[in-house]
Amino acid sequence: MRPLENDHNIIVKIFVKSNLRILYFACLFLSILFSCRKSELSWNTELLTPLLKSSLSFKDIVQDSILSIDSSQNLTYVFDKKLYHLSVDSLFTFRDTGLTKSYSLDSLSLYNANISYPITLGAICLQAGLLGFLIISQNGQNIAIPSIPSFSAPVVPISADSIFTTMTLATGQMDISFTNGLPIDITNVVFELRNQSTNELIVQGNFPLIASNTTETKSYNLDGKTLEGKLNAQLISFGSPGSNGIPVLVDTSNAILANIKVYNLHPSIATARWS
After folding, report:
1. For residue 40, how many C-alpha atoms fall within 13 Å in the half-sphere facing its CB?
2. How confident is the model over 125-151, as a mean pLDDT?
3. CA dihedral defined by 244, 249, 253, 258, rounded to 10 degrees?
4. Number of domains composing the chain
5. What is the pLDDT of residues 103-126, one digit of tens each?
6. Can you tell me the distance from the alpha carbon of 128 to that of 37, in angstroms, rounded to the nearest whole number?
7. Among 27, 121, 244, 266, which has the highest number of CB atoms less than 10 A from its own CB?
8. Who's near 224: CB < 8 A, 6+ residues apart?
């Protein structure tokens, strides 16, 4: 049985090999047939060619009058045109600044001024160091205020220039008053009044004692003084014995009220302020 089986295998191999050879030649024939087929002949006649040649510069676009060329061959384009015209008098109306008032030296003699400024207990305590802060901390309380050593108060600017800036007086009077609204007496009150621009001393005075809730006034002669419309007033020094061990109500809004009154002024020279 084995020789017959071998013969059968040989026949099968010969058959397969023969069929493969036929398939190979068939594929080769078909590839040659289709690869040799030619496409239809055609021509593309669309051509892009320039019709003309020219050049265009910036001068061909804008006028020569608005172009300029510098040494570096840089072009400068200048466009100048009025967009809108507006005059000042269309926005504002100016009033006539001519002289509308006049004063004589006699009319200045009628000028009287009464100027007041307060110095509060709170402001005084701020200048009194640690003791002052202690008093402020007891605001609204009843305490025995200890004695306050002498110290000065800041300069207070005063404006009295209603119709003049300066005037030299032939005669004149000034009253200085201090009203003590504090719950304690104040002593050795030294004050000065000076012109603001020149610092010239106008009046200096001393009040040895101004008791609590009282007013003290002194008058001063202003003959020959040059008085400015802007002045500086200052308490150069003052102190207090305190409340002498008696509890008093601390109210930091309580104040010493200084009052300056000038009257009976007869100027020899004056510079008026016009308004």
Report:
1. 2
2. 88
3. -40
4. 1
5. 445 545 445 677 788 888 888 888
6. 122
7. 121
8. 168, 169, 170
Instruction: Return the SS3 of 176.
Output: strand
Q: Name the residue with tokens 């050049």.
A: 55
Instruction: Decide if 129 is inside a domain.
Output: no
265 found inside a domain: yes
First CA to last CA distance, the chain: 151
Q: How far apart are CA 98 and CA 232, in angstroms?
A: 33
Look up the pTM and report it.
0.57
**What integer is the mean pLDDT of 199-213?**
94
| Maximal CA-CA distance, the chain | 170
What count of Cα atoms within 13 Å lies in the side-chain half-sphere of residue 236? 12
Per the structure, the complete domain to which residue 195 belongs is given by: 108-119+156-241+254-272
- On the CB side of 149, how many CA atoms lie within 13 Å of its CA? 4
Query: Residues 219-230, buried b or exposed e (16+ Cβ, 10 A)?
Result: ebebeebbbbbe
Whether 236 is in a domain gets the answer: yes
The stretch 134-147 carries a mean pLDDT of: 91
Helix (H, G, I), strand (E, B) or coil at 242: coil
Q: Which residues pair with 191 in a beta bridge?
A: 205, 235
> Are 238 and 186 contacting, i.e. CB atoms less than 8 angstroms apart?
yes
CATH assignment at residue 234: 2.60.40
- Contact call for residues 231 and 167 (beta carbons, < 8 A): no
CB 122 within 8 A of CB 137: no
d(CA 50, CA 136): 100
Alpha carbons 265 and 272: distance in angstroms, whole number: 14
CA distance 181 to 257: 7
- DSSP code at position 124: H
pLDDT at residue number 151: 80
Identity of the amino acid at 99: L
